[in-house]
Specification:
The chain is α/β, with parallel strands linked by helices. It has 2 domains: 91 residues, NAD(P)-binding Rossmann-like Domain (Rossmann fold), CATH 3.40.50; 40 residues. It is built from 3 helices and 7 strands, in the order βαβββαβββα. The longest helix has 21 residues. The N and C termini lie far apart (40 Å). 23% of the residues are buried.
């Protein structure tokens, strides 16, 4: 299946991230840069992120509320992530993403390439080949920086 690239305004969008490892931190930082309001629930802080609401506690099913527009399951436990996505669907959360299983996602996080004038999102066609997406994203970043300096 191919995914259609779409850009949405996430300014002031409420995001719940459960888990706080390296992948979660990357996703948090991208969303934060675009103005999302982020809440994190985690048993332990495994990486540093700033200016977000972090609740250090065990995840509970009642943590997923209808006020959230995006839920990201980013724990190191596949069964917990699967349950988080199940609950997000039951609560009619618009967008949900799991770091464990692409079949549990209704959107992917692209590589984000931006300068002062443009923003691009890049992913492989099926959302699985992160290596090739990163290679092309690096090429685009280098190209945009060179063009930007030449102006």
């Amino acid at each position: 299946m191919a995914y259609f690239p779409i850009f949405i305004n996430v300014e002031n969008v409420k995001v719940l991230v459960i888990g706080l490892g390296c992948i979660a931190a990357r996703r948090i930082n991208v969303l934060k840069n675009f103005g999302a309001e982020i809440t994190v629930i985690t048993k332990e802080v495994k990486t540093n992120v700033e200016n977000i609401d972090i609740k250090i506690k065990e995840f509970e099913e009642d943590d997923i509320k209808e006020i959230y527009d995006i839920v990201i399951a980013a724990t190191d436990n596949n069964a917990v992530n699967k349950n988080i996505i199940k609950l997000a669907k039951e609560k009619n959360i618009k967008y949900y993403n799991s770091i464990s299983d692409k079949n549990d996602n209704n959107f992917f996080f692209p590589a984000v390439i931006e300068n002062d004038e443009i923003v691009c999102g890049l992913t492989s066609k099926n959302g699985l080949n992160h290596k090739i997406a990163k290679q092309y994203a690096d090429i685009l970043r280098n190209t945009l920086c060179v063009e930007k300096k030449a102006e």
